User: What shape does this take?
Amino acid sequence: MYLTEKIAYYPGCTAKSYAKYMDSTSRDVMKEFGIDLVELTRWTCCGTFYGLADDNLYSQLAPIRNMIRTREDGFTDLVTTCSMCYNTLKRANLLFKTDEEKAERLNAFMYEEKNYEEDVNVWHLLEIIRDKVDIEKITRKVVNPLKGLKVAPYYGCTLVRPEEISIDSNPEKPTILTDLIFALGAEPVEDPYMTECCGSYLTVKDKHLVADRTNKIIGSMTRRGAEIIMVSCPLCQFNLDRRQKQARELNPSLPEIPVVYFTQLMALALGMDYDKLGFKEHHVDPTIVLKKRKLLGTPEKVPIKVKK
Amino acid sequence: MTKTSAEIKQEMVKIYVANTEYEVPSNLTIMKALEFLGWRLERGVGCRGGFCGACSTIYRLKGDHKLYTALACAAQVEDGMVIAQIPINPANKKLYNIDSLKAVPNTMLEFYPEIARCISCNTCTKACPMDIEVMDYVQAALRGDIAQAAHISFDCIMCGLCATRCPAEITQFNVGILARRLYGRYIAPKYKQLSKRVDEVEKGKYDAEISEMMKADQKAIAKLYNSRVREKD
Amino acid sequence: MVKDPYPDYMRESINKVEKTREKRVKETLDQCSPDDITDVLNKFHPDFIKEQKTNLRFGVSKGEVVPLEVAKIIETRSILDPKKVDLNKIDFDVDILIIGGGGSGANAALWAMKNGIKPENILIATKLRMGDSNTTMAQGGIQAAVREVDNPAMHYLDAFGGGHYENEPPLVRRLVKDAPFMLKWYEELGMMFDKLDSGEMEAIHGGGTSRKRMHFAKDFSGAEIMKTLRDEVFNNKIPIVEFSPAVELLKDDKGQVAGAVLLNLDSKEYIIVRAKATIITTGGFGRLHIQGFPTTNHYGATFDGCVMGYRAGAPLKLMKSVQYHPTGAAFPEQIVGLLVTEKVRGKGAQVLNKNGEQFCFPLETRDVEASLLIRECLGKGNGVVTPSGQPGLWLDSPLIDLIHGEGTVEKNFAAMVRQFGRFGVDMIKDPILIYPTLHYQNGGLTIDENAQTPIKNLYAAGEVCGGTHGSNRLMGNSLLEISVFGRAAGISAAKNAPKVILGKLTLEHVTNYNTLCNEHKVKNPPSPIIFPDYTSDKHKGRLLPTDFLT
Assistant: This one.
């Protein structure tokens, strides 16, 4: 496949540890559309959450340093798959662009680096898919349409709030995931909880609170008939997948539902071998519902029953 | 015509130690300058060659607000140097048994959870006298990339200057050695021939040959020695 | 434009080196014949200058040939006055006391622990920090006969012949047989030796080896070993007292060694340690600056262990033999004496005189190589003399990149590139100036193959011992020695200590030794000296008298 475009890629810490498959499926899927996600040569943790006390510039160092790294590699666009990273990087970048004095102080502190000149654009992969690749192209490349699969899109909150960095002009009802689900041949099940916070990093300190959120979100989606949830953030995936067990302690009748990244379902629909998509790593096994819908593997790979 | 060392007048510089101004020859290292002043060193001295990290020193230059770091044995005095030493770093060293560890991404965070406080300020890298990208190896440890943390931190002499300056209070050098030991033990490929040879020696495969040489008289062994063939490089 | 660190006349000499480089790539000179060896050693090796040696006048090894500087600190009174020491109050009561916190000390402690001694019953006493030692500075590597084309018998022969046949055969046997085991243990501890992708450890020649068996970790081999062993000592919570050098051994009324008296460098108090087994791992004597040579050794290498052992009646051997490392830095002045590892020559760098010409095979055994260099400078006048009067010869480091490809020097000798770089010298572009430097104590306390000295309860391991290397140590056998005999000492001590019953503590042996000194009208300053004195002369005459130490 001839790759026509290279974009600088910021994996984020989880992409290298427990969200390895978000990383590998993203890169493989984008290759199908001629886009090479080039990992930054050097990058540091973004800080995970945007530092709200913006008189404390220390928390802006990490995101801005990653902008400098992007320029060092010769790129002006930086894409990430993790919504937390997207939120942190984009807001820090925005602060830098709008507050000249803080920008100067940040550059002065990082005197061992080249100055950052506010010339990098931060993207989430969904934006690239919507704006650069175009949903139409995806539909045409699908070889294993996810027919009949009821997918609930889940955005979480960091992708759409605050308004300045939202990937959709309507932060209360974004459409990109729904459009993507249609393109993959599946049935979207939109839900009022699809932009509600999953509890985020509070999962470390207050599992109970996250279990409560998980219960509400999953409860609402399953009542509407969803059989699989599609997320765009590794922390959302962690919370909705791994905290289901605790959620069931609050609500024993909560059904089990698998939670996957959008790139994993894209990869499946584009015909990639499902064994390589990391489904085994999930706590709630997605292969059960996928097998039920006869979606594992491309038409060539799906075993055909031969009448004797 | 080159001057002899006696003819070249030794240039002197002013340094400040404990609020006192001194004049010392400009070609001395900080360590030798202190000895020039009559100090008989007992702390902040070790190998005197830049390998052991005993002589961690911080200094400023008169008129300059910046804080610099150096190894006293390896840095030359400069005019206006205001010197202080940190012979021991109060390190947070965690205890572990290498045999029972797993080289998985979370191990580093498990023993040194404070690495999650790293804000990428790069102060540690600027403090390192061995030109190591300290921030990069802490970040690698943070995201569970043990191999990268091991390789980047390899030259570390554990002088503690990074930990002294870190605003997040991480003890970088202890993180580094854990990463290196995990790498050396669990990630680097094993030397199979080594196990084989240990086994052979244990079973006494070479005992007879060595016994013979031990019993041989000097003439016989000299003959053996001089007729060795050296393996090509 | 960076200022050239080299004065004009030295730069001119470097230009000559650059001119001859192309033709020298393929040029290999012959090794010395046995007759050549005897000749150059006798005429130019510092060991053979009779006026610099003397015979010990008293003590258990009376008659032993030693350098003058060694006689000065061994034929003298103790810094401790036994009359002023109260032996009734015991500060530490342990199974095993280890004096010296370097590679052999750490190995002794860990292996004693693995052989049944509880960590809290061990004590490591060291004059500086745990790990401050010559081990940390060793750059070259550790020998072990592992590869299929090699075997321990060949290793034995190399070591025995290299030592001029004066080695103790049982010690050499233990050295070469335990080598693969120790290397494997080090791999399991997680030390990062340079390896190929297959897992095979890289191995190169050292001076005098017939097979490539020097394993290394870039040029930080000793540091890598020491850092990891020290980490293990900490992990196992083995008690350590730092900045507390031992100043004399203790004995009991039955004549067996019973521990030691330590000096707390901060409070200046003495500390009484009673121990069922005492292991001396105090390292070498480089800071005595034999014959005025600079040294590669660390600050604390002052022969303390041998002095204390000798006073307790432990014999010394092979003290006539001192190892001068052929390549110590000779320029710039700030780092004169510092080790330039043999590996640089192992990778192809040649030794050249002021005209840029080779004059000897670069990888003879260390004593032969050092003598050849001294002959070229002092005998033939073909050396370069630095502005401070230091003679030297060129070591053509840029040749390495020419042979092995660009980046080889930077990758393999990172520490050295940095050391020279700090003072403006770029060893990748320019050759470096070297001259022999005082490096290793070939002789020392006698031990058997279980690291036991002839004195009951006294063990010794590492550089402080004599006999393993004969009269000349091969490169890579010292890191091996601390490993093998450190372990041997730990195991022996662990085996014997539980059976030991100690009597009344005494320093009588020190009193007796002091009496001997008086009888011989000795006028030397007291010992052990603990640290060398580098303060300038103008300070020495005006020290405030204090009498806490004799």
